[in-house]
Amino acid sequence: MRSNLTTTAKVYLAIVFVILYAPIFYLIFYSFNSGGTMSSFESFTLEHYKAVFNDNRLLVILINTTIVALLSALIATMIGTLGAIGIVSMSNKKMRRTLLSLNNILIVSPDVVIGASFLILFTMVGIQLGFTSVLISHIAFSIPIVVLMVLPKLFEMNTNLIDAALDLGANRRDVLTRVILPYIKPGIFAGFFMALTYSLDDFAVTFFVTGNGFSTLSVEIYSMARAGISLTVNAISGLVFVVTVGIVVMYYLITKRTRKSGEV
Known about the structure:
The chain is mostly helical. The protein is about 80% helix and about 0% strand. It has a single domain (about 55-264), classed as Orthogonal Bundle (MetI-like fold). The protein has helices at about 1-30, 45-55, 55-90, 95-110, 110-125, 130-155, 160-165, 170-185, 185-200, 205-210, 215-225, 230-264.
């Protein structure tokens, strides 16, 4: 019985992965097509990737996207980590549950609603749409993700470690920097990489708050795709996919190394 369930689960996962990844690999495959269309593959070429790197505007957009992703992930990780610590340390359980619920609502809220809300907010307070508006938006929707990644490690942590540190003469700052942060480091890394990935991939929120000549890669790909089928879009999408896979692999390696050092 257990063997049959295992086989069924493997078949189900295989089908899911094929459905999810087949279109991506199909898109990347035709990014090497010299024919210029996705109807028939003529011969292998790198001209579409060369076109990407020879386009100064695309390179600027790529740099903008990277800067926004790194800055928003870094700031959101700092704020989210401190926020998670603050939530866990609250003695009022009702307030703690309320804050956790509000945090989870932000995660499941539609991106269109969040993007429209930020657009209205920036218009009301007079913030010009561009780099600043995109950065603030990405920080805002990344914070709940970081909180969600850090919380499990905080709940897992034995509070006796904090009490022991205090009894040994450590102040609150020492407890935070030498006890709590080292213990929840895997959760912090997870939050950072999740925030980084969400920022790189985000389209809906960014589409609402971008402006003044500033654009990100996701918005630019959408604009290029609307203008007509171009294998340059395939090349850009392929590069984004490779970068995303690289981030996931990097996160896996860092997490694995952290676990090994923790066991030692």
